[in-house]
Write a structure and sequence with these properties.
The complex is a heterotrimer of chains A (323), B (280) and C (325). Chain A contains 13 helices and no strands. In chain A, helix 7 crosses helix 8. Chain A starts with a helix and ends with a helix. Chain C is an alpha/beta fold and 325 residues long. Chain C has an eight-stranded mixed β-sheet with strand order 7-8-9-3-10-11-13-12, with helices on both faces. Classes of the chains: A mainly alpha (323), B mainly alpha (280), C alpha/beta (325).
Chain lengths: 323, 280, 325
């Protein structure tokens, strides 16, 4: 098991380096010179241009640029933002908590509500409830997250004024306000962006869990469980669900990218100060280093999640663990 | 009968497939006849006179801030979105099939190398790859948009095709062909490819839905289809500033996206069940 | 001699194209006495597995048991039970083992867990007590090193051991009847004999009645007390085992015996039964074996009931009227 773990970790690192290489290649092969483009946007002196050139190392041979790039990532140095003139890493770390809060909330709801609904649907296959939920998930899956966000922001935030529709917290609530008030305020701001992401991802979770459960419920050992007198609830949750959990672990690995991508749009719409909105504005500003930084972080996150998924699989499935 | 055609037939008989295909067909028809019936929305007749009007008999979907009829913009936007989706998906599928077949058939080092590459590429979410590539331009040419969306979308397909190829390789008729000394190219084109077409078609259909969402998102961020060419995502971006006063500007293009993607997914699901009845 | 099971006119139907239903099990009746082994023999598709599943009301949907029949355990009719009372007979009064122990055991739970679960489903014992009982059961079914095996997972055991585990699970709540659906089909020949021996031993020690479902006449000889042969959803011949083997009377049974290769005696050409088993949708009216029967005559156009031949030997064939000894 230890050997397998070591191998998986090495594999993950390799994949990450490959991803970095791909990003580097994209950056260098993309037509146009980022510095040149900047020149077009605002007037700069020759000295400034030269300094930028040196800083971004665009005049070095390509393999050396690659080495500098990799070395930088390894050290945690992701360059400097052109727009804000601040180290990218610092900016990313600053915005990380907000995205983690949003992401964790969405994941939590998906893993509880989504799984429960999916299992329910499978047990009540063909019922009206099942068909309704299936239709709803079809719609949820097909919805552009930014549009849903706008609609919710307009409906709930502006029209009905039930919840705030922008930002992380009320700027008027100072740091000396009681913790509960501040926490409540952030929670209120969290609702709409989280709801948007939840609606879009829940659909997929339910569908997947339903399909996994249906597959498992067909298997012979379910008949055995019933034949020995296990109650229906035990059959559903203890026997069937435990086995239908495996695809869910894979699902987590598959849908984390959806979450990361979705958060770009949702955070942008709701002005939620996280990594997603940072990436969106970096794209809009053509702030290459910052954009690259967010891409690298996203890649690291996904590779890490994939590794965690494999570990979870091994922990849950004795067939993998003991071979 | 050609198994592919049979699968499409079965999918059409499925009520879901019928509904999805019908919607897409109507939409396609609309985009083709649009130039005849609807005014060209790139032309801006009366900048301020009829701006932000609510839906009425004259303007079924209302007008936007520049007095353009939203309905015609949605239909014209459909032309752009559907065209981009079809072209980009065609590119993705072709690349995916190529890589998948190469990896599955040749195996060994080729397979390892290709799949490692795919793993690495899949590590970065597609949106970020696209943002990085497209942020280089000030005004992104549509051709580049199609190219890059296509080029970033083949990774999953290649894995799918590779799995199919590995499965089919082991089937007796392929082994028989190899034993008879059939040249590689013949085996690939005559045996492997036709059998992989089913899943490929499913991937293509579902891919169309995906690309529409991707392109809309990019346009919403300003990195997709550039104005004044109408696009659904771009319309929603423009609608942001007048959301409170003229919500129809955002609602209708969004519904168009929703409808089209649902239709593509419905047809794709029906196709998938037709190609692989086991999974129903 | 106490009767433990009485099945009367059991019918299981499935929806077919065109809206009507086909009866994969069509009016099956039999009885089981304490300690007795009845073998239900037939080819695949004759309905024998469905019959066994019906006893525990485990017929997979969209199939269903049609009204008009009865499955009596003493004075309880299983067909009239629902919910908790039904759950209570599963495992406690009737236990069941299945054909393929690899897929019939849950891969993520240990063997000990799965047996204990069966115990605790019916007996109010603690986890520790259930585990002890599981250990005892593993010993009873002849598994070597049972203590270690308790914590093993199904994939870590051989096919024969897995089947023994299945038997242990089926016995966990001490049922009076054991239904064994093709228990040896998925096993090697040498292991088959061992499993059958385990079943024999348990019959003797617990006084358990066994319904053995199989397509293999060979394992029936010298083991089962009585045999019932099924064809196209019906029982076509029923007799004590020695009588059936000495004098197979129904043309189908005769065909079955003739098509089994023999190790002793001169090597003859095998005589298969012409034609193939028709699917339920293609069953002829009248005797279902008629299209393939070498002895068919006009009366066979009407469905024969089970007619007596000798005491305790019946067959579903008009020839019984003339062949009565």
């Amino acid at each position: 098991m230890g050997r397998w773990l070591a191998r998986r970790v090495v594999q993950a690192l390799l994949t990450f380096v490959l991803a970095l290489t791909l990003l580097f290649a994209l950056m260098r092969l993309a037509p146009g010179d980022p510095i040149q483009r900047l020149e077009g946007e605002r007037p700069m002196s020759k000295a400034e241009i030269a300094r930028l050139r040196e800083r971004f190392g665009v005049d070095q041979p390509i393999w050396r640029q690659y080495r500098t790039f990799l070395g930088g990532v390894a050290r945690g140095d992701l360059g400097t933002s052109i727009e804000y003139n601040r180290p990218v890493t610092a900016m990313l770390l600053e915005r990380l908590p907000a995205t983690v809060l949003l992401g964790a909330t969405v994941i939590l709801v998906n893993f509880t509500l989504g799984i429960w609904l999916g299992v329910r649907q499978a047990r009540r296959r063909g019922s009206r409830e099942d068909r309704l939920l299936t239709t709803a998930s079809l719609a949820g899956h097909a919805m552009p997250s930014f549009w849903l966000g706008l609609v919710l922001a307009w409906l709930v935030g502006v029209r009905l004024r039930w919840l705030p529709s922008a930002g992380f917290s009320n700027p008027l609530l100072g740091p000396d306000a009681p913790l509960s008030a501040r926490a409540g305020d952030v929670a209120a701001h969290l609702v709409l962006p989280a709801l948007t992401l939840i609606l879009v991802t829940l659909a997929g979770t339910m569908r997947f869990q339903r399909a996994a459960m249906l597959e498992v419920l067909r298997l012979p050992y379910i008949v055995t469980a019933r034949a020995k007198g296990v109650a229906e609830r035990g059959v559903t949750w203890r026997h069937a669900w435990r086995n239908a959990l495996f695809p869910m672990v894979t699902l987590f690995g598959l849908w984390l990218p959806l979450l990361v991508t979705g958060s770009v749009f949702v955070e942008a719409v709701f002005a939620w100060p996280g990594l997603g909105s940072l990436a969106a504005s970096a794209a809009g500003n053509r702030d290459y280093p910052l954009l690259m930084g967010t891409a690298i972080l996203a890649g690291a996150l996904l590779v890490g999640a994939s590794l965690a998924t494999d570990l979870a699989y091994a922990a849950l499935d004795p067939r993998v663990r003991l071979s | 009968m050609n198994p592919l055609l049979a699968a499409v037939r079965t999918a059409i008989r499925d009520p879901r497939g019928r509904a999805g295909l019908a919607f897409l067909a109507i939409l396609a028809l609309l985009t083709l006849v649009a130039p005849i019936f609807l005014p060209d929305p790139a032309a801006q007749p009366d900048p301020l006179g009829a701006s932000n009007l609510p839906p009425s008999l004259m303007h079924l979907f209302g007008t936007d801030a520049l007095s353009r009829d939203v309905l015609s913009r949605v239909v014209w936007g459909a032309r752009v979105s559907l065209a981009i989706a079809l072209l980009a998906v065609a590119l993705s599928i072709s690349l995916g099939a190529l890589v998948g077949i190469a990896a599955g058939y040749f195996g060994g080092a080729v397979d390892s190398a290709l799949m490692r590459l795919v793993d690495g590429a899949l590590a970065v979410p597609r949106l970020f790859l696209l943002l990085l590539v497209l942020a280089v331009w000030e005004q992104i040419p549509v051709a580049m948009l199609v190219l890059f969306i296509g080029v970033t979308g083949w990774f999953g397909t290649s894995r799918l095709v590779r799995a199919e190829v590995l499965r089919i390789r082991e089937e007796s008729y392929v082994r028989a062909a190899e034993a008879l000394g059939a040249p590689r190219r013949r085996i690939i084109f005559r045996h492997l490819l036709p059998n992989a077409l089913g899943p490929l078609l499913v991937a293509a259909t579902l891919g169309v839905g995906d690309v529409i969402l991707v392109e809309a998102g990019l346009s919403f961020l300003g990195l997709g289809v550039q104005p004044p060419t109408p696009s659904w995502g771009g319309m929603i971006l423009d609608a942001k500033s007048v959301l409170v006063t003229a919500p129809w500007n955002a609602i209708f293009p969004g519904l168009a996206i929703l409808g089209t993607v649902i239709a593509a997914n419905l047809f794709g699901d029906a196709l998938r069940d037709a190609v692989d009845p086991r999974g129903a | 001699m106490s009767r433990v099971l009485e099945v009367e006119n059991l019918r299981v139907s499935f929806p077919a194209e065109g809206g009507h239903r086909v009866h994969a099990v069509d009016g099956v009746s039999f009885t089981l006495d304490r300690g007795e082994m009845l073998a239900l023999v037939g080819e695949s598709g004759c309905g024998k597995s469905l019959t066994s599943l019906a006893l525990l009301r485990l017929v997979p949907g969209p199939g269903r048991i049609d009204p008009g029949g009865a499955i009596r355990l003493g004075d309880i009719d299983v067909l009239h039970l629902e919910g908790e009372p039904l759950r209570r007979i599963r495992g406690k009064r009737i236990g069941m083992i299945f054909q393929d122990p690899m897929t019939s055991l849950n891969p993520v739970f240990t063997v000990g867990d799965q047996i204990s679960e069966g115990v605790r489903a019916h007996l109010p014992v603690s986890k520790r007590e259930a585990r002890d009982r599981a250990l005892h059961l593993l010993q009873e079914v002849g598994i070597p090193d049972p203590v270690a095996r308790l914590d093993a997972y199904p994939h870590q055991l051989s096919g024969g051991m897995r089947q023994r585990v299945m038997i242990a699970i089926a016995l966990s709540a001490e049922p009076e009847i054991l239904v064994a659906d093709e228990p040896t089909t998925a096993l090697d020949v040498t292991v088959q004999a061992q499993i059958l021996e385990v079943l024999d031993r348990l019959r003797a020690s617990h006084g358990m009645a066994v319904l053995l479902i199989t397509h293999d006449l060979g394992i029936v000889a010298g083991r089962a007390d009585r045999v019932a042969v099924m064809y196209a959803g019906q029982i076509v011949e029923e007799a004590p085992t020695p009588a059936l083997f000495a004098r197979p009377s129904h043309p189908y049974t005769q065909g079955l015996f003739a098509s089994v290769p023999r190790l002793h005696g001169p090597v003859e050409r095998l005589k298969p039964i012409g034609g193939s088993v028709p699917p339920p949708s293609a069953w002829p009216s009248g005797c279902r074996f008629r299209p393939r029967c070498p002895k068919a005559f006009d009366k066979c156009g009407a469905m024969p009931p089970l007619l007596p031949l000798e005491p305790a030997h019946r067959m579903r064939c008009w020839l019984a009227e003339t062949e009565r000894s």
